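Task card 7
Instruction: Convert sequence to structure tokens.
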Amino acid sequence: MPAEKFEFIYNNFTAESDEIWGVLPQQLWDKIYERSDGRISVRTVHGGALITQTETAEAIGAGVADIGSLYTGAASMLHMVNSLSGVWDLRMGAQIGTEGTTLIHKKMWEQLAAYREEMGKINCVLVYAVSSDPWGFVMNESVGSLADLKGKKIRTTGKYTPLLYEAAGITPVSMSSHDVFVALSTGVLDGALSTTQFLRALKWYEVSPYLFYPSVEGGTLATTLAAPNYVIMNQDSYNSLPADLRKIWDDAAGEHWEIAAKAMGAVCALAQEDMVSKGTTIEYLPEKDFQTLCDACPDFLKIVEEDLNEMGDPGTQFVALFREMFDAYTAGRLDW
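Output:
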């Protein structure tokens, strides 16, 4: 009797060429296909043809597709998953970067049952997650110091990013990403913040020729403390796999956290190279100004802890574990 085969459908809400949601997942699907001797295959539908970004969490849970790409900001019901999005502890971020952030979240996912169970509430399991590539600002004018940010009108998102803006003296402006290009070109906005890859993809640099990082030149580019780029799977689809194939799936997915994290550096470098070739100038904060900005920021993790506790989630446990994993990583005691 031939061995049973399983075909799953992966909904990618972006283009096939997208490194985070197109290329990296395909590498995993190919590996799983090879290791399972063709018994597990994944067919990808690109461009959100089945499910849009904002529908992903509920739709994958409902079985519209078996697997989906999820930017966690589009799943507000996942409190802990979303809690560190927009959390700009610049000193911590500069010490761990994208790779360290991803590793910390992997260890937290393995150790904190409540973290995993949150995904189960929407009938999903996590395949893997990865931090975004470094965030930066496209600016209409050069930023040579912290003082150059004072009063600048810059697009903001989320709950915590405005706290960074307040510390820097930036005027926050809420605006749909679809309106940013025109707002930058007309001076309604002085700048906009996003991941380097996203800034490149939306071509905001074409009207705002300065790419500014709130980091020190030559150091690790700071990012948020979140790993918000998720690939999730319907719980029933996952459970349909027999034990031997589930082990193949779990082992390959577990390895992919590291593969994806290490790829983020190349994603950022490629985006930077492309923008610079088209006239963008990259700028950083002087060391003294970086420290001044860090000192002016609130204790973001304390705020996250309080917010999670208020929603009935284990905020104290969640934040304590993040701090523990951060200390382990910076001391060289955390490994994949």
